[in-house]
Design a protein that fits this description.
The protein has 312 residues and is an alpha+beta fold. It has a single domain (4-302), classed as Roll (2,3-Dihydroxybiphenyl 1,2-Dioxygenase, domain 1), CATH 3.10.180. 18% of the residues lie in helices and 34% in strands. Strand 6 (105-107) and strand 7 (110-116) form a beta hairpin. Helix 3 packs antiparallel against helix 4 (225-239). The longest helix has 15 residues, at 225-239. The N and C termini lie far apart (40 Å). This is Ring-cleaving dioxygenase.
């Protein structure tokens, strides 16, 4: 079991973020909670029906946050997978909704539709043969046949790929599968969600600056605590990298480290999942807090903006 677990980014207005990802992109709002390290702000999770690893895009929405700057040492683009024949549908939808997008292009033989979210986050849809046979979540706005099927992968913008590639292959089981110009493709075994990491080498380019529209970190999958521990040991023994102690995020358990190229990596367990504190049928309906914050619920709810105006 390998590949991406989730991607976490920084956004501005939480209501605008909620509307874009649930209505315009048709993702399911899997969890409404707070940033455990800053409980006066939201932490949103979007994904498929159950929030399976490989489908989860999360946000720290901070109203008024300054815009970030794309550059070296960051995630350059986050790509979703859709059925190949759905790219025409999405092009028309973006046009109708005034969503900024670029012309279709080819990467490693795949059709790619780049676009941006309201904060300027670089996204893309990739037409994947066979994705039409995978289940697609629909909230009634985007038909299930055209729905996003989780992540295709991410592109990292790095000064050099060498040391990062060693971590991807040795710790996470990725393999180099191709090169196009300055981009090197790595794939996890199988063709599941989140199995692609592209490294775009741009030596001497400006370093990125985190802010609105930036990716905060990307997380890779570990089946459980034991596999996570084995990965941590390889980081220390083979790469001289020292991850943090494990932190309980309620829906997974995480360790973090800064990979050699500068991107913040996380290793997150697949367990226990998003149904641990509410039924699948009502995921995302209520504000969920970890037990250590329940005593502060009234105070927290008092400072968080309501999402109701976006729902109506």
């Amino acid at each position: 079991m390998s590949g991406l677990h989730h991607v976490t980014a920084i956004a501005g207005d939480p209501i605008r973020n909620f509307g874009f990802y649930t209505r315009d992109l048709g993702l399911r709002f899997v969890k409404k909670t707070v940033n455990f390290d800053d409980p006066g702000t939201y932490h949103f999770y979007y994904g498929d029906e159950t929030g399976r690893p490989g489908t989860i895009l999360t946000f720290f929405p901070w109203a008024g946050v300054p815009a970030g700057r794309r550059g070296v040492g960051e995630t350059h683009q986050t790509a979703f997978r859709v059925p190949q024949r759905s790219l025409g549908y999405w092009t028309q939808r973006f046009t109708e909704k005034g969503i900024a997008y670029e012309a279709l292009e080819k990467r490693f033989g795949e059709s790619v539709l780049p676009f941006t979210d309201p904060d300027g986050m670089a996204l893309a849809l990739v037409g994947v043969p066979g994705a039409e046979s995978e289940p697609g979540w629909s909230n009634g706005d985007v038909p299930a046949e055209h729905a996003i099927r989780g992540f295709h992968g991410v592109t990292l913008l790095l000064d050099s790929a060498v040391k990062t590639a060693a971590v991807l292959t040795d710790v996470f089981g990725f393999k180099e599968t191709g090169r196009e110009g300055s981009v090197i493709r790595f794939k996890a075994p199988g063709d599941a969600e989140g199995s692609v990491v592209d490294i775009y080498e741009a030596k001497g380019f400006l370093r990125g600056h985190q802010g609105g529209g930036s990716v905060h970190h990307i997380a890779f999958r570990a089946a459980d605590d034991a596999e996570q521990g084995q990965m941590a040991q390889r980081l220390v023994s083979n790469h001289g990298l020292h991850p943090t102690e494990q932190r309980d995020r309620n829906y997974f358990r995480s360790i973090y480290f800064r990979e050699p190229g500068g991107v913040l990596f996380e290793i997150a367990t697949d367990i226990p999942g998003f149904a641990v504190d509410e039924p699948v049928a009502t995921l995302g309906r209520d504000l969920k807090l970890p037990s250590f914050l329940e005593a502060q619920r009234k105070q927290i709810e008092g400072v968080l903006p309501s999402l109701e105006e976006s729902v109506s």
